[in-house]
Structures are given as structure tokens and as C-alpha cells.
Amino acid sequence: MELYELGIKAAREGLAKGEFSSVELTQAIIDRFHAKNAEIGAYLTFDEGQALALARENPKAVPIAVKDLINVAGQPCTCASKILNGYVSPYDATVIRNMKSHDFIPAGRVNMDEFAMGSSTENSGLGVTRNPYDTDRVPGGSSGGSAAAVGGNLCIAALGTDTGGSIRQPASFCNCVGVKPSYGRVSRYGVTAFASSLDQVGPMAKSVEDAAILLSALAGHDEMDGTTPRVSVPDYAASLVGATMKGVRIGIAKEYFDVRGLDPEVRRITDEAVKKCEAAGAELVEVSLPHTEYAMAVYYIVAPAEASANLARFDGVRYGHRSAGAADVYSLYTKSRAEGFGPEVKRRIIMGTYVLSSGYYDAYYGRAQKVRTLIKRDFDEAFARCDALLTPCAPTPAFRLGELQDPLTMYLNDLFTIPSSLAGVCASSVPAGFSGDTKMPVGVQFVCGAFDEAKLLRVSKAFEEIRGNVV
Ligand code: GLN
Predict the structure, then answer these.
(1) pLDDT tens digit string along 218-240?
(2) Which residue among 31, 369, 370, 381 is least enclosed by CB atoms within 10 Å?
(3) Is-cis flag, bond preceding 21, omega within 30?
(4) Same domain, 54 and 166
(5) Is 314 part of any domain?
(6) What residue owns the CA closest to ligand 1's atom 10?
(7) Is the CB of 320 under 6 A from ligand 1?
(8) Is residue 75 within 6 Å of ligand 1 at its C-beta?
């Protein structure tokens, strides 16, 4: 096995036994980056000097790829947007500080949809990322660079962010494990905001155990992020010992199965996953989440509304791109924004500004918040009857680059991931098989209640053990 193929657990074991050094491990990732990145386009930038210096400082350190919206001191942080051209982070995000104190180091910045808006990474303003399983296909998004780097063995593991599915859907497309933690489980201090009532940082990894190890490092209360409660962080990896499907109540919600646009191969793989859980001793429980059908509409009011407010700070004055041709302050704002933002970001800002505008606020944003409460209650009721939901993760396997031209069709990719984001609960994507037609990987989604990550990871691990060979 090559060093770049290792996951976190194996890398730590090798380091502990002295089989290789952290510098050698980091160099192996850098060499792999040079060999493969031109083809896959997972990374936007890789500061080799900084990564190697950090590896020299901490001989136990394992390198982790970082999505380009998380601040690392001294590094660019562009959010894959031209508007942040030239911006250099003055400080480390809390997740980066937490990683460093748990023997992880940031190594390389990976591509994404601009400001995390999208499901294919095609909205990146800075470059194309390809699916390592078929380079004519997308890696998913918005954490497409993270998923391609993990799936293509261009990193040991990666950080992604998920607002409506951006960790889980690309994990499904690139055959990796992705975990969207509960809202508030992980600090967002130093993470560029998209939709503040939804955004979460999470691990993307080669196994459930690796995701658990990395999540324990990331999670916890942070004085710099008032949305992180003082809930203690379990040793998630330790809690995986003895993980089993026996006696686990797996909730099956019909709203996630009888869906127009669900690819037959995804349906088959999800149905088989359900059967495997049952055969391994899980109890299947039928549940209903009746407000699921409103989730897309709610998300496309709440997320753009919050994005329009968050992105107001990019005005040509403080960060990144400043238009050269501005005659006065107003045209400095408008020209810098017109030149810097890509089309999808502009679309979201326009939608968000509209739904928040006076006279429309109650009809759109206010109403969406009420429906969001109903969606959250659906989950509360479901988790009174089951331990975890098992659902499809994305409606299709990875599609071709350029295949989805219409923004609405792109939005439908997050049909299965958006409701749990709105409810603030935790969810994972775990590899489950390969589509017979396209030969592309397909993951299934598990969903558990808020701050129930230990259970989510145990169920995910139990599934990983019974799913059969998917490599
Ligand atoms: N694809 C969804 C969107 O475009 C979700 C993105 C995300 O989770 N960051 O908004």
C-alpha cells in the first residue's frame, strides 16, 4: 500500500510504530498531488512549505485537506470565488486550531462550488474538479474537491461543509464517508458563512472510523461561536467498539422512497441496504415525515435570505477583489460585486434580497421559518420511534460534467439531505454499492437526532461492516 492510500487510523498506527514520519507522510501526499491533481483538479492551492513545516513541528501529525472556505493563517481563502482573489487569512478557524491540538495539520486547499452554492463543483469560479471514478463526471458539491481528494486518494481525509447536503452528496458520488454534524456541534468561527442557521463543518474520510476520529477533534463548545452549546464531546471512535445492527430500530420513511426522479439503481442499492440491515438484526420501523415535500421550498427561501445578508460584506473595500474602474463608493461596491461574484451566487443574492424585502418578509421568510418548525417536529416524532433513518443520499449517481444546465434540476440533488439540515439533526453518507449502469458509487444516508453523533456513527459503522465489498 502507498502512503497516500492510508486513512487516518492506519496513518496514525504507522506513525506510532515509526514505519514512516509525518514529514514522509506529508511528502507522499504532496507527490500524489503533483502526479494526479492536473487530472482530478481536487486542490486549488497547496502550500507545500507550510505543510512540511507543520509536519516537522509535530511528528505525530496527519495531513488533512481543507475546503477553501475555512481560514488557515497565512493561506488564501477564496471560497472558489474571484471576489476573494488575493485574500490571505490572518488567523486559524477554530476547527483548524482544534485539528492541530489533535495531531492533524492543514495540507492543501480543495475546490468547491463558489461560496458553497451548488451540487457539482461546476459553480467554482476557479477551476474544474473531476470525479476520480470517471473523469467525465462531476464529484458532486459543494464539497466536491474534498470528496474527489478522498475518493481519489489525493489526501488522507478532508474537511467539508454542509448547508443542505454539501458533505453527504459528494461523499456519495466519490465513494467516501461523510458526516454532517448536528447544528452547533462544530464551531464555525473562521468558516466563511453561507447560511448561518444551517452551515456545519464535518469530516470526509475513507472509513466511518476515520470520520469518527476526525469529528472528535473538530467538535465542541467554542467561545467564539455562540451556537455551540457546552455539550461534552464523546470519543466517537471509542464508541464504535462492538457496533452492531442487532436491535437497532431503523426508520424507513415512505416520503424518501416513492420519489419522482429517484434513479432505479439508487433505489435498488438503498432497498438492498435496508434488507442487509434487517438480515443483520435491525428492526425496521415505518415512519412518516409528512412535511418533507416542503423542505426544498423552505430551504430556497432560508438559505438565499441568509446568504444575501452574509455576502454583503464582500464589497470591494475590506476583502479580496476591488474593481479598478470605480469613480465613487457606490460604483466601487456594484462593480466589485458584479465582477467578483459568479452567476449562481448572484442568483442567490437576488432571491435572498427579494424574500427579505419589506412587504415580502412575512410572506416568504417568516412563513418558511414556520414550516421549518413543522419539518423539525417530523424528525422529533420519527426519533421517538426509531434510532436512525435510512434513506437514499442523492437521487442519482454522479452525473456528467455539463449535464445539468438548469439550476432547478441542480437544486433537486439535495432533496434527501435538505430536510435533516433544516431540522438541525446529524446525518451521514456511507458507501453502499455501485450503479449497474454507470458503474459509479452510490452512498446511503443515515440520520439521527440532534447531538446523537455517537449513535449515528455506530449505526454507520455497523452498516459498513455488513454492506459487502464496495471498493
Ligand atoms: N446544493 C445545495 C445548495 O446549492 C447545498 C449546498 C451546501 O450544502 N453548501 O445550496
Answers:
(1) 999 999 999 999 999 999 999 99
(2) 370
(3) no
(4) yes
(5) yes
(6) 117
(7) no
(8) no
Same structural domain, 356 and 305: yes
Does any ligand 1 atom lie closer than 6 A to the CB of residue 138? no
Distance 308 CA to ligand 1 centre (A): 14
By three-state DSSP, how is residue 137 classified?
strand
Is the predicted pLDDT of residue 470 greater than 70, yes or no?
no
CA of 393 to the centre of ligand 1 (A): 14
User: Atom 5 in ligand 1: which residue has the minimum CA distance?
Assistant: 164
Active site residues: 67, 142, 166
Instruction: Kindly report, residue by residue over 251-301, the tens digit of the pLDDT.
Output: 999 999 999 899 999 999 999 999 999 999 999 999 999 999 999 999 999
What does the pLDDT read at residue 149? 99
Nearest CA to ligand 1 atom 4: 118
User: What is the band of 202 on the pLDDT scale with cuts at 50, 70, 90?
Assistant: very high
User: In this predicted structure, what is the pLDDT of residue 12?
Assistant: 98
- Same domain assignment for residues 162 and 224: yes
- Residue ending a domain, among 223, 240, 257, is 240
Starting from the edge strand earliest in sequence, which strands make up the sheet with 104-110, in order? 43-45, 104-110, 62-67, 158-162, 200-205, 177-180, 426-434, 441-448, 388-392, 249-253, 283-287
118 close to ligand 1 (CB < 6 Angstrom): yes
Beta carbons within 10 angstroms of residue 50's beta carbon = 17
| Total count of domains within the chain | 3
Does any domain span residue 407? yes
Query: In this structure, are residues 198 and 421 in contact, taking their beta carbons and an 8 Å threshold?
Result: yes
Q: In this structure, what CATH number is given to the domain that contains residue 387?
A: 3.90.1300.10
Q: pLDDT-derived band of residue 325, with 50, 70 and 90 as boundaries?
A: confident
Q: Is the CB of 200 under 6 A from ligand 1?
A: no
Residues 134 and 256 in one domain: no
Q: Are 270 and 196 in a shared domain?
A: no
| Ligand 1 contact, 163 CB (< 6 A) | yes
Residue 351 belongs to domain spanning: 297-362
The grid cell for 239 is 464508541
162 lines ligand 1 (CB under 6 A): yes
Q: pLDDT at residue 175 above 80?
A: yes
C-alpha 165 – ligand 1 centre gap (Å): 6
- What whole-number distance in Å separates Cα of residue 202 and Cα of residue 186? 8
Judge whether 471 lies within some domain: no
For residues 228 and 107, state if they share a domain. Answer: yes
For ligand 1, the distance from its centroid to the CA atom of residue 141, given in whole angstroms, is 7
Residue to mutate (ligand 1; options 179, 300, 414; most atoms within 8 A of CB): 414
Secondary structure element (H or E) that encloses residue 447, with its range? strand 441-448
For the segment 124-147, the average pLDDT, to the nearest whole number, is 98
Residue of 422, 416, 195 lying closest to 298 (CA atoms) = 422
Residue 176 within a domain: yes
452 Cβ contact list (under 8 Å, min separation 6)? 182, 383, 425, 426
- Residue 28 — very low, low, confident or very high, per pLDDT cuts 50/70/90? very high
